[in-house]
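Example record

The entry below shows one chain as it appears in the dataset: sequence first, then structure tokens.
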Amino acid sequence: MGSRVAESKPVLRLDVRDVASVPMTVTIGERSEPAADHPAIFDVDGLNVHYGDFHAVKDVSLQIRKNEITALIGPSGCGKSTVLRCFNRMNDLIEIARVSGSIRYHGVDLYGSEVDPVQVRRHIGMVFQKPNPFPKSIYDNVAFGPKIAGFEGSMDDLVEEALTKAALWDEVKDKLDGSAYALSGGQQQRLCIARAIATSPDVVLMDEPASALDPIATLRIEDLMQGLKEDYSIVIVTHNMQQAARVSDRTAFFTVDMEQTGQRTGVLVEFDETSKIFTNPGETRTEDYITGRFG
């Protein structure tokens, strides 16, 4: 896959239904081990990202599997969010960004000439670091995406379903016409999750979804993710290693490589089941980061 630039493309036709500074102790959450037979949703091979002359991410290869939570961890500036944005082509919105390598989504080249980035984002939802509800009612926030997509079913039922999946329905069912801004920060973030899943995506990307929330709201988001993975595949970027250990099935550890060019280029050091990453990492750099010896 060569350099990519944003441009108008035909529709993607894909039925996804078929297819710290001191040593620390990290607690692995109580959950089953990731299933070996979960099929790959994303197959990433030799991913590179440039912003102009800046080599932001170098030669990343990994697989994201169905109905699992995959955590991307590492120090600031190591390319975690850049990689995340490659999964739904958000980097296309940055004029100087160039993506090369291969990302296959259910076997389809995500950056192929026949793929429409807008359609990609309907299959692959995203939740950002800070809650960003629209200046609309709670109802209209959830209904916005389906309306744009031409949804023809019962909007009331769809809104209720999305809010229920986001563990928010019972808290807002009597004030759906009220402003989304009247909600607490944690409620706003769950509303953004409801908005993301209202278009029936296959994958939900989460970029530091709890970093702006208090501990109680953070735990609610983590509990919510565990429920959502029954229906969705989730990729989360987090600086919180405790969070990665609690919620994820697999973890990718990134770091910064400055040896060759002097630039802060992100590289993938290790990718494995979360229990192995946090208890028996295969790389010294991973162990040093997990134990707080650097990062």
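Notes for this example: The chain has a mean pLDDT of 87. The longest strand covers residues 40-51.
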